[in-house]
Amino acid sequence: MDRKTIHSEARTNALPGWKDCQWFAVVTAMGLGGCGGGGSSVDEVPLPPITATSDVPESDEDAARFLTQATFGTRSSDIDLLNANGFTGWIQWQKILPSSLERPGLEAQDAAGADVYQQHRVYAWWRNAVAGHDQLRQRLAWALSQIFVVSDVAGALGNDPIGMAEYYDVLVQNALGNYRDLLEDVTLSPVMGRYLSMLGNEKADPLHNIRPDENYAREVMQLFTIGLHELNPDGSRALDGDGDPIPTYDQDTIENFARVFTGWNYADADSWHWPDSNYRPMEPWLAYHDTDAKTLLGGVLLPANQTPAEDLTASLDNLFQHQNVGPFIGRMLIQRLVTSNPSSEYVGRVAAVFADDGTGERGDLFEVAKAILLDEEARNGHADDPVNFGKLKEPLLRQTALWRAFAAGSAIGTYQDGWPEGSWGQAPLRSPSVFNFYSPFYRPPGEMLDNGLFGPEFQITTHTLITSGTNRLHDLVLWLNDSNSGLDGDDVYIRTAYERGLAADPVALVDHLDLLLMAGGMSAWMKDVVVDRVTHVSMSDGGYDRVTEAIYLIVTSPEGAVQR
Amino acid sequence: MSGSKRGTCSMGDSHNVSRRGLLKVGAGAAGLYAMRDLAMVSSFGARGAGGYRALVCVFLYGGNDSFNMLVPTSNARYAEYLAARQNLAVPAEDLLPITPTTNDGITYGIHPSCTELRSLFDAGSLAIVRNVGTLIGPLTKAQYQAGVAAVPPQLFSHSDQQFQWQTGVSGSAENVGWGGRVADVAGSLNVGSQLAMNLSLSGANTFQVGHDTLPYNLGVNGAIQLSGLFQNWNQDRTAAFEALLDAPQSNRLVRQFAGIQQQAIDVQGVVTSALSSAPTLTTVFPNTGLGRQLRMVARMISIRSSVSASRQVFFVSRGGFDTHDDQEQDQPGLYSDISQCLAAFQAAMVELGISDSVTAFTGSDFGRTLTSNGDGSDHGWGSHHLVLGGGVRGGDLYGTMPSFQMGGVDDVGGGRLLPTTSVDQYSATLARWYGLTEPQIAQVFPNVANFASSDLGLML
Predict the structure, then answer these.
(1) pLDDT of residue B48
(2) What's residue A13's pLDDT?
(3) CB atoms within 10 A of CB A204
(4) What's the rounded Cα separation, in Å, for the pair B389 and B386?
(5) Cα(A4)–Cα(A107) distance, rounded to whole angstroms?
(6) Which of A185, A530, B409, B424 minimizes the number of CB atoms within 10 Å of its CB?
(7) C-beta of residue B205 within 8 angstroms of C-beta of residue B363
(8) Contact residues, chain B, for A212 at CB < 8 Å
(9) Mean pLDDT throughout A400-428?
(10) Spatial distance between the Cα atoms of B20 and B5, rounded to a whole number of angstroms
């Protein structure tokens, strides 16, 4: 398939220049300059060709459901692409696309003498999420950023936007790689090092009652690898003879790992206590490393007198090889992409791929992502278990889906929405703590709790935030659109030309919006309400009001808020 | 309890229930209770049905290192403290001396950033409860080490210990908090109220989730209104928006979302209307996250009559207490914020003439290690806590002061201190003041009977 077909816009809205800017990061990284704040277009790097497979979607709705799970929002052109090339063809093509990054653009901005703050990192996040071609990689990175959590809410990181951008880029670059590499890159990131205080962590000083810091040792086990309880291969809890859960580790294990994670500091530091900061991987200082023997999970013994790197490698291997990692991480990734309540069979199938991708490799995240998305439960859960299947859309994904569906961009090419948490309770790398915006085990009180259903995203769906989110959508749809002649150059607005062409036929309009925004899942009841309302909106403005009224009602509705 | 659990039980089995059913979930608690056994009201103690009572939970997320908040200053005790804490210790000369009513032979000082708390202590409205933590029953160090007695699961883990603090039942996996269970048994007191008894200024939490009642979440500016809806010019859009909330739904997540949006709409009108006639507070609150939350709590308390509330439980929080790093630099700011915010809140309650009826208390994940990791402390267990209000027998210390001796009777390793008072005892004391009868205390705190007393004696 040639590039022209990839860029098919048969059913969407052209925005001059909007696709060009996504290459900013790649282009800048190659030293060719970039579109930066100005948004002028640059030469686009040609996309690698896509190789079709035979597993094409059964319908446009089938394609749209997949895209809701695998990307930041459905576009008509992507439905066409899937229909032409198959699910597997699309997934394999995604793997070979260049990564859209954050740091290079921020560094260019810095080099040009402009201030760089946290919001600039968030602008880049929106750009890559909304306009990046590497959608699957970006969606996985976004999911991983909610597992390997760091946050600029922490004082130590608030003034390091370039380091934070690099941390996100590390997730992007590893998102379709191997989990073991990801774990090591995260562990050695100085941003994680600051956040969970492994950076500068030193061996015990018994004279002063000083012990190694236990922060990273604890959270890398509880949150990043194995969790609190021994799991069966299908993610259910293993039980002891008394029917009780079995803890994966105890305080003694934590203290041993805390000793492993000693002796690391900023790269090229010329002082242990007063190092200069940078974003490169941390480097070892033997003098500050605990060189006594250590006991890891499963009684694995690390001999005395190993270097910091030897201890680290062996310990990360020890964690990585634990049988919990596949089901523990697999379940969380399923929750981020597909459904809040996967069956144990689904978790088990994904965990099996984590254990062995078919070539004997453990931890292949690309194959794990593929297994998650192509699983029978992902593809047919909405029909097989309509009562419980699906997930509340993450707040930011409601906004990206709207922006992608209607080719949103600003006149100057940037996506300047630097503090989305005020409306949504969510922003990239900005959760209140290492426990993310919500727990993967959160059960919303009421009917869902009574039925044992998890619903992580409901933890930030408070009475206040549900209203501020609806109000944000009100502004994004009814104000920030192409009928508004009073917009500023940096206002991101949706384009509705194609939809206006359908506006004279309300049923056709709502069917089209149903496909783009709800993967065709709109109930007949809801369709009647929206069509009826739209029919009563005047066409005298050429259809602008009809289109935006319909979009607003759909994206704020309960049905529209849940991905199924 | 009546047969209909939260009014939603039937919904679990039906796919075609409108959101009007869900409406009863949170905001409609009073409507539900009005139909229940009104005799329950009279089962409340003498203090029950009469005046207003409110509890304000101030949760310190991350695990407050309270061993620097209240410090023993007698020579031998301070020497133990210094030996254990080393570079984390507050210099003796910086501590603000206090004189507790009860003389236990130890002298004490308060962290220098807590000047307002010291004044409140001196004035008799602040009490400190020492070394509180999650426990299933009384526990000695020997039993803990030998593993021969029940120990709360997942000690030292943030999420688990927050959960256990908020449930008030260590070791239970049930996702209901003691504030929620209090509302389950006491909700009938708010006769005619459309507002839930539990109000959160800090989002979702376990503390306020009950078996039969749910909390309502407010923002620091009250309840916000929906843009472009519920006005004369957009009646048609509003009708469509509401019709979509009402649509019959098969999917439970869709129903959950619709229910929350509907509650937000219903209660917003009540709260906004009541707040519009709230008295202007002259008390100035710190313009911090905690200050803004407590200011809205004070404003909500000021309009209690217009929302027909005679009992309310509030939840506010502040993060930043997980001081693994830079503790010496960060702790003064954390403490001065707590101190100034609590003092402003108490001043506002005095200004409203309601201070005898409002009690604020702290909770936190856990205490921290006495020992240092270089520039901070790690996750511990027992910790000191603050109880504030006109109904508090203040100016005194409660519970037992633990030994700070490394490897001593209370140190289970690295300066993690075995609690000497359980969260259950602490919580039951507060719930009894709120108006729960002894049978209700036993119901809400099933483990408290394991301990010598469920009343720490700190409430008037």
Answers:
(1) 39
(2) 54
(3) 19
(4) 10
(5) 32
(6) B409
(7) no
(8) 373
(9) 97
(10) 15
Give the CA angle between residues B251, B268, A561 to the nearest 5°. 25
What integer pLDDT is reported at residue B50 of this predicted model? 54
Q: Give the C-alpha separation, A440 to A458, whole Å.
A: 11
List of residues 6+ apart from A424 with CB closer than 8 A: A395, A396, A399, A460, A465, A468, A469, A472
Nearest CB neighbour to B324, from listed A213, A340, A558: A213
**In one letter, which amino acid is A335?**
Q
- pLDDT, tens digit, for every residue of A106-127? 999 999 999 999 999 999 999 9
Q: How near does any CA of chain B get to the CA of A531, in Å?
A: 10
Please tell me the distance from the alpha carbon of residue B64 to that of residue B113, in angstroms, as a whole number: 15
pLDDT tens digits along A25-38: 333 333 333 333 33
Q: What percent of chain B has pLDDT over 70?
A: 89
Q: Does B378 touch chain A (CB under 8 A)?
A: yes
Which residues lie below 8 Å from residue A412, measured CB to CB, with a gap of 6+?
Answer: A37, A38, A39, A489, A490
Q: Report the residue from B203, B253, B326 with minimal CB separation from A462.
A: B203
pLDDT, residue A44, reads: 62
Q: What angle do CA B57, B63, B66 make, to 5 degrees?
A: 85
Instruction: Report the pLDDT value the prediction gives residue A208, as an integer from 0 to 100.
Output: 87
What six digits make up the tokens of A504?
């004279």
Return the CA Rg of chain A: 24
A479 close to B (CB below 8 A): no
Distance spanning both ends of chain A, measured CA to CA: 30
**Are A467 and A423 spatial neighbours (Cβ–Cβ below 8 Å)?**
no
Fill in the amino acid letter for B173: A
List all residues 6 or more positions away from B353 whose beta carbon is below 8 Å from its beta carbon.
Answer: none
Residue of B nearest to A218 (CA): B157
| Sequence-separated (6 or more) residues with CB below 8 Å from residue A329 | A147, A179, A225, A354
Q: Given CA atoms B133, B136, B139, B143 in this order, what sign does their dihedral have?
A: negative
Residue pair B261/A466 in contact by the 8 Å Cβ criterion: yes
Lowest mean pLDDT among A407-411, B2-6, B342-346: B2-6
Tokens of A241: 């003879």
Whether residue B14 lies within 8 A of chain A, CB to CB, comes out as: no
How far apart, in Å, are the Cα atoms of B338 and each of A344, B55, B132, B436? 45, 17, 19, 28
DSSP A300: P
Q: Does A463 touch chain B (CB under 8 A)?
A: yes
In the stretch 214-233 of chain A, residues with CB closer than 8 A to chain B read 214-215, 218, 222, 228
Residue pointed to by tokens 């700070």: B404
pLDDT for residue A326 is more than 50 = yes
Average pLDDT over residues A163-181: 98
Number of Cβ within 10 Å of residue B75's Cβ equals 10
Is the CB of B379 inside 8 Å of chain A's CB atoms?
Answer: yes
Q: Does A474 touch chain B (CB under 8 A)?
A: yes
Compute the nearest-CA separation of A542 from chain B (Å).
19
Q: Which residues of A touch B218 (CB under 8 A)?
A: 463-464
